[in-house]
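Go through this chain.

——
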Amino acid sequence: MVSIRETTPVRVQHLTPQLRTTTAVVDGAAVIVRLDGEVDLEDRHPLQQALARLVQTRPPRLIVDLTGLAFCHSVCLNALLTARQRARAAGVEMVLAAPPPQTRRVLEITGTDQVFTICSSVRTALADTYAASRRTG
């Protein structure tokens, strides 16, 4: 005999980490924004707004550190592409740094790895910044 018992539904907590951004200014040469967690639909507009505010400060280089990005899908990619357009219009060079393997794969599949400047690490992106400033300074 099968017994069926009704229970109250259990609220499932969000299992993916919410998006956190951390920003650092490096000697006026660059601004680094680190993304930690996952960008979901609710995070798209806040992320776009945060990146737009950073672009408005017109740093020579905006480095988007993807080291802590848990997952990148179309919502995140669209936010990054929007930021890139704004950065170009403002004369700000935008660089993606340290994309995790799955994010790198999304960039390759979509062809956006050919659109973005991608560095293997934040350190490399900063070294490139300093090398460029020595050439022009």
